[in-house]
């Protein structure tokens, strides 16, 4: 009995943590900066790819993961400087431009790294729960997802940098008048969001692998999660991820993974129809 | 005294903890031309927006000819005959003047009658030469007139005008005052204004708003000489 | 002039081979899909990312009905009616709730993705409608072309499909233009310019939004039917994210505030994609991505409006030169 | 009503667009029309089209095959061409989009006047092209592993079909490894469904038992739920007919959760997309496959092919089955052209009907069965090693495409174009 409950809990938590991880970067870039970033999936893919490359070159896995996130953050900053910074406020143009960036990244990665799925092994083994065994890495992934979310919340709420970012996103002109270099803040925030996406890819790569076209698997889910989350990007992402993860984990375990995904999208539609401003509407809070 | 055309009872609205409108009782007789005055942030525009379904009240009631319209949607209120000119010109910039007016007139009239109505209203606001121009290309004052004309073309029973003379030259202001008096022959009018001279030229009675409440409701001269009114305007010229 | 152009277009098949006609027909069909979106987006201001849902439904319904040996004209009709009804129901559900703009976009996108996933999950032999296997991921091949009514047992060949799609595109374009001049259409234009003012004038914007959504759904369904006729194939990719995003690209490239722009945008992007695929230049996506990004940075309003602005600027400059002399 | 604004101005736009469209058509036509009509003359090249996905999600299967096709044509031309004429490839990148397969097949046949099309990776891309090839009376060489059953004289399959592969793999697993209790996972489309049916059929025919069959859409990456169900069922062996980049996650998650030391893993698709080159040694080691070609085959033909391929492509990595399929497809077609003495599709089809078309290639002898246009070949049982390649366990000589032969006879019904789904209960 205990086994069954535990395996259920594991399935659901694992599913929730995937939703959290794939939405985090988007919660910053779309949720806060209002840039419809269709290259989000490709940022995840780049993180996965770089992590696999680094680990393949002999860097220890747990160093490769943050390094990969950092590199993707730099890629994000380059993209922001070259393209995105001309488009703030032109929401639909960001959609088109980031779609272009997404195609460009997929094409470039296929050209330089080939179409193959890249990956890197992890050797944490598994622990057994009666008839079941669970991969230790996936448990670590669940922890990481929640830890990242909590850390992000603290940075946003408690630090000066977080305050500066929130001020700038709410009213750039006012922030500028207060002496904040908003141009720099936009650049760094975008880079930060990209780095989070890259980190996600790096965390996922030992289990899911990295292929140039993998971004498409995540992008729709991530957008649905962040939008369903509503006006508080972090609290909302947590709430929506929990809901969707629970549904996906339970339905996929009991029936099939297709039904799991379909039921998530269906619940998202109902949710947006009846709570059209997202689940955190009316909640007091800042992020 | 006849039954009021418009009445609000304990109307209230709060924005993020600030009471924008605080239990306002307001009543307007048919055919009246009333001005609302008060410093910026007194709640005048919010009040208008609640009368026209653009903001939903937190409490209280709005009655039009005795009918409760508190929860009605903007288009339903429009159909009942309240027309509003918003503070910032609220027109179809990408359409021509004639098209703007046609859109308004076609709602109540068949095609041919609408065309006559448009011509008539155009003449009234003296915009005939501009009929084919895009509204977005017109000067600020002219855009205000287009908006007033749209309101009129709908043949409303109650016209709300939020700062009709703002940004207008002296001649334009005078012309606007005349226009408003003309409108008042067919409809009840409420105007929010800052220009005291303008107010004197059109209204006999004013309601003074302050911090979401009604401070004074009097005839123009009495209200403007009231100490409390002077106090709230202190530091601000009555221009 | 317009008649001349039509005649010119209709004369293409007498001068150029089937391969050219086949390529151009595809552009015509996809341009219809782009029109369905730009009509909604450009005139009513609602961005439906789910026009592919109606497109795919149209294609699938036509395929299923036609392959159950109903005559193809009836199948085409049902293929248009079904997505129209579907968009009416979906539109009622969304528009009557006065749902926010971006949520509207996301929900319509989710609807098309659900349909895609559902169709992909119909691979087994349990999923049969009449005589037709739904075939999941693989799609339904061998969809019949339209029968020629006055010739027994004959179906439209490539040139026939070319004429048909050209005619339909012209008719739909003209039809939408005429719609915009009716009272209904005027309100739609008003909605694009200033939704609040339309409401204050007493129009219930929901009626007009729903009307436009249903009309656009019908056009997308029609495009789906023609796509099945053109390619003799329907598959779940009709619904997928790539295609949904591509429509946005076509419309933005051409300029969404016009009806002609999206047609040009579709022609440009589709031609470019097809052409790149034959050049052996490596990754088509790389070139396409670079082009799109540059496009946004250089042409803010889309190609057609930018070009016409440029032309009128040149004209003004020429006029001022003449005046100066 | 006076909604005239804009319409005068924009009225010309439709004209502009239509004119531009027409102009584009004219330009495209004039670019490609020149000098094509004389293609069939002596000395002019024989044109074949190669339609594969260089870009998009399916290119994992295509990139090596594109080079395999090019290499075969290169070898043919270096040895004097076919019937004294050089062979020319027109390559089309179908970008993993079926509608482009349709468009390019039409272009290849009408514009390039190609004598044969080599291409198509997925069954759906093949099914989109088959009616077009039919309509214009041409010939399609489909060089891929697929579910079997296509009965069409204008279509030639040069890859493996399920019966061929599984009649070797499953008895090996049951008899040599003693693994009877089986759990089947397959990709959720026709190939997966039909393969899963054959798997079940053959497992049961050999005295095994199937505890469950599950299907996965191609974009599923999270296999945690099914791994829990597998552990609950505790089978001896898991058979995988999973396909594509996303499904590779299964092999990693299987190793980190269950482990091949505790449960056998056999596959009909593993290795085809060169999966083993991207897995770690632990993850790839021990997976049992059945294949018609792996780089590690210990024959002179295989060794020289791998060597030549690396030299030709300038890439030093694993070649694999799909690269070899491209090479084999062109060589089989060339043999048919030689025996027909004519490159035109109908002549080649007549030659194919004889059943004498064959090619002694890298993976053994391939010969085309004249009744089905499917290929008889050697099947090798191999197991993943920790060097990113495979070790040969056992070879089965000349396995016929039995499943398709059961339902298809092109000698008796030359006009058949059906894809049969074999009746498996």
Overview of this protein structure:
The complex is a heterotetramer of chains A (287), B (239), C (325) and D (425). Chain A has 287 residues and is an all-alpha fold. Helix content of chain A is 75%, strand content 3%. Chain A has one domain (2-274): Orthogonal Bundle (ABC transporter involved in vitamin B12 uptake, BtuC), CATH 1.10.3470. Chain A has a two-stranded antiparallel sheet with strand order 1-2. In chain A, a hairpin with a 2-residue loop joins strand 1 (126-129) and strand 2 (132-135). In chain A, helix 1 (2-32) packs across helix 9 and helix 9 (215-229) packs across helix 10 (233-254). Chain A is globular. Chain B has a domain at 1-81 and 159-167 and 189-239: Rossmann fold (3-Layer(aba) Sandwich), CATH 3.40.50. Chain B has helices spanning 44-51, 74-80, 97-105, 111-124, 140-153, 170-186, 196-202, 220-225, 227-233; strands at 6-15, 18-28, 33-37, 59-64, 67-68, 82-85, 158-162, 188-192, 205-210, 213-219. Chain B has a 6-stranded mixed sheet with strand order 6-7-8-3-9-10, sandwiched between helices. Mean pLDDT of chain B is 87; it is low at 235-239. Helices cover 74% and strands 2% of the residues of chain C. Chain D is an alpha/beta fold. Chain D folds into 2 domains: 3-160 and 299-377 and 399-419, Response regulator (Rossmann fold, 3-Layer(aba) Sandwich), CATH 3.40.50.2300; 162-291, Response regulator (Rossmann fold, 3-Layer(aba) Sandwich). Helices cover 42% and strands 20% of the residues of chain D. Chain D is built from 13 helices and 14 strands. In chain D, the strands form 2 sheets. In chain D, strands 6, 7, 8, 9, 10, 11, 12, 13 and 14 form a 9-stranded mixed sheet that branches. The chains are: A mainly alpha (287), B alpha/beta (239), C mainly alpha (325), D alpha/beta (425). Chains in contact: A-C, A-D, B-C, B-D, C-D.
